[in-house]
Amino acid sequence: MSDRKPMDLDLARADFPPGFVFGAATSGYQIEGRRFGGCGLSHWDTFAATPGNTVRGEDGATACDHYHRWREDLDLVRDAGLDCYRFSISWSRVLPEGRGAPNPAGLDFYERLVDGMLERGLQPFATLYHWDLPVPLADLGGWRNRDVADWFADYTEVIMKRIGDRLETAATINEPWCVSWLSHFLGEHAPGLRDIRATARSMHHVLLAHGRATQAMRSLGMKNLGLVTNFEYASPADDSPEAARAARLYDGIYNRWFLGGVFDKAYPQDVLEGLGPHMPEGYEQDFDIIGTPVDWLGINYYTRKVIAPDGSGQFPALKEVEGPLPKTQMNWEIFPEGLHHFITWTHRRYTKGLPIYVTENGMASPDTLSDGRVDDPARIEYLNRHLKEVRRAIDEGAPVKGYIVWSLLDNYEWSLGYEKRFGLVHVDFDTLERTPKASWHALGRALKDKG
Ligand code: FCB
User: Fold this and answer.
1) Residue 389 among the catalytic residues
2) Does any ligand 1 atom lie closer than 6 A to the CB of residue 174?
3) Which of 125, 300, 363, 420 could in theory staple to 86 by disulfide, Cβ–Cβ 3.0 to 4.6 A?
């Protein structure tokens, strides 16, 4: 790994089934530049403007200025030999007030972007919500307010009437765990709440919104509709029954709650023991909407966590402890076996034959530009090891249809600002110049033969 010569991936396109797609992902707030093109404020702007919430107070006002540089960015997707581009639509760019009058420049932007993908032979994979809730809706309680499901369905209809006919796939929500638990219980993402009632409500409303938006897209005749969930493997810190219980509950909150809602039309009992008293009244009546059939599931996977009881006696009474495996710049352990676990488990237990896409996988590293090149051998090795786990899951019969790297570009990594670099392409945040990294070149070599 210290070898500075270009490294190759061990697997190439020919090692995957015909039609398997490779792609790169981004999200609106993380790359577009919120201050351009009449985009309204989202709760990420106000969260970042509050001291202490983000590193150096950084926000997505300019980000990668993808709003103006999107042509160059799509060229980079195409020239890496990739087949699809997973992007998100910013709700506040389409509807600056969250509801009501659309921003014509916002609608035009996404239409140009989608047409730009098609012109380059790239399949558009759209996500409707990647965390940038318009502030007027945050003022009304955001994800705590049940009405968010209707607002989301209305927004879905506005944008999909414009671009829905040209998408390869559409996903409703990116990572419901982050929208709810991370943002309303842990307080690490906007709106930065730490409140169990807000948490329980957001964990339910985010799925209700998913169901309503799925129905709205079906009414427009759209196909290939999915949800993107994120997973973390939970390992108990020791052999004690208490650690096993804590890891099991972590798995429930993170992994089983959202799949349970959508595929079982029920929430897992162990999590309900803590959240039950805080759930909205009559929530059980919503499962028919939440369980509206989807056509595929997206799996985002990065790491595992080592979990121990925290001794507090207060739900969920668990904490993360330092694990022994090598870590990325995020301090996340590298555990590729977890990706195999979640693909095969999800397929057997929940999705039962529905197509699965790995919609995000990748790592951050402190990549630097020198002599016009960026060597990132650790990322190549990370992708290598995870692709082998995808291959292993396919060999065992899991219907994985694609693998999408997070991310195309170094970008705004939320509360951690601009210093965590996840891109296949390096971005200089002073000049906004893009430089493909060695991993981008390695992918290009592995994928060049499109058959
Ligand atoms: C995922 C998010 C994405 C990015 C990566 C590192 O949870 O979907 O926006 O932050 O993690």
Assistant:
1) no
2) yes
3) 125
| 414 touches ligand 1 (CB under 6 Å) | yes
- Report the atom number in ligand 1 closest to the C-alpha of 228: 8
What would you measure as the largest C-alpha separation in the chain, in angstroms?
62
pLDDT in tens, the chain (451 residues): 444 345 899 999 999 999 999 999 999 999 999 999 999 999 999 999 999 999 999 999 999 999 999 999 999 999 999 999 999 999 999 999 999 999 999 999 999 999 999 999 999 999 999 999 999 999 999 999 999 999 999 999 999 999 999 999 999 999 999 999 999 999 999 999 999 999 999 999 999 999 999 999 999 999 999 999 999 999 999 999 999 999 999 999 999 999 999 999 999 999 999 999 999 999 999 999 999 999 999 999 999 999 999 999 999 999 999 999 999 999 999 999 999 999 999 999 999 999 999 999 999 999 999 999 999 999 999 999 999 999 999 999 999 999 999 999 999 999 999 999 999 999 999 999 999 999 999 999 999 877 5
For the chain, helix, strand, coil in percent to 5 are: 45, 15, 40
> Is residue 360 among the annotated active site residues?
yes
Residue located nearest, by CA, to atom 10 of ligand 1: 413
C-alpha 20/C-alpha 120 separation (Å) is: 18
Specify the ligand 1 atom closest to the Cα of 230: 7
- What is the token pair recorded at 300? 């985002």
Beta carbons of 134 and 141 less than 8 angstroms apart: no
* Mutational pocket test of ligand 1: of 227, 405, 414, 424, the residue with most ligand atoms within 8 Å of the beta carbon: 414
Of 175, 232, 389, 413, catalytic: 175
Q: Which atom of ligand 1 is nearest to the CA of 414?
A: 10
DSSP 221: T
Closest atom, ligand 1, to C-alpha of 174 = 8
Distance CA 168, CA 61 (A): 29
Q: How far is the CA of 229 from the centre of ligand 1 (A)?
A: 11
Query: Can you list the positions of beta strands (E) in 32-148?
Result: 84-88, 123-129
Check pocket membership of 413 for ligand 1, CB cut-off 6 A.
Answer: yes
Report whether residue 27 contacts ligand 1, using a CB cutoff of 6 Å.
yes
Domain ranges of the chain: 13-446
DSSP state string for 294-363: -SEEEEEEEEEEEEEE-S--STT-EEEE--SS-B-TT--B--THHHHHHHHHHIIIIITT--EEEEE---
Query: 360: Cβ below 6 Å to ligand 1?
Result: yes
What's at 394, amino acid-wise? I
